[in-house]
Amino acid sequence: MRKLPTIFVRTISTLSFKKILMLIRATAPHPLFTLLSFYATIRSFALAQKHFPRTSSANGIGNAYRHALWTCLIMMYCCKISSPQKALNFCKKITDLHEELFPNQPLEKKMDLHNNQVGMDLFMELLQGIHRQFFETSFFVEKLMVKTKTAVVLSDIDQEPVEELLYLEE
């Protein structure tokens, strides 16, 4: 936890001035959502590292899990202070922006965007049966663990999207 300020500063320092402005434009209108998203980022890294210590930072199944978990956590935290639709719009905007600010190879980007969407879809599906104020992390952590068992290897940029998590073979 002590390393967080250092990691944050190091990450921001890699961005160009134009990208920093893009980030400010996206986050300044929503300061609470931004703080909650930052917390969701920290939690998703910690949980993914716990469950997938070897692949949470690579492009394997742990990365797929982390991206879907990240969006679920952002949605859960933001839904506690706002409507699900506003939370969904912010989550989509900020996670798509992340892929633009920190670009990957095309296959990795496709995988990350897809897994982000899987997380948002899962949260919205679960939301139908539970009041948003009573949501807990455990509601989707186990569901995402099950999804890791049916995850599909993404091997081609033109591969048709599926409803499962996608990952790259290591």
Using the alpha-carbon principal axes, give the shape.
Answer: globular
The number of strands is 2
SSE order in H/E notation?
HHHHHHHEE
- Give the N-to-C terminal Cα separation: 29 Å
Percentage of residues in helical conformation: 55-70%
Mean pLDDT: 92
Give me the number of helical elements. Answer: 7
* Widest β-sheet, arrangement of strands: 1-2
Low-confidence stretches: none
Structurally, the number of domains stands at 1
Structural class from helices and strands? mainly alpha
Instruction: Report Rg.
Output: 15 Å
Beta-strand portion reads: under 5%
Biggest sheet details: 2 strands, parallel
Protein name: DUF6973 domain-containing protein
Domain DUF6973: 27-151
Organism: Marnyiella aurantia
InterPro entries: DUF6973
Description:
The protein is mainly alpha-helical and 170 residues long. The protein has one domain. It is built from 7 helices and 2 strands. α4 (61-79) crosses α5, α4 (61-79) runs antiparallel to α7 and α5 (84-101) packs antiparallel against α6. It is globular, with a radius of gyration of 15 Å. It starts with a helix and ends with a strand.
Question: Helix and strand layout, with pairings?
Answer:
Layout lengths: L3 H10 L3 H11 L3 H21 L9 H19 L4 H18 L4 H22 L10 H12 L2 E2 L12 E2 L3
Parallel strand pairs: 1-2
Helix pairs in contact: 2-5, 3-4, 4-5, 4-6, 4-7, 5-6
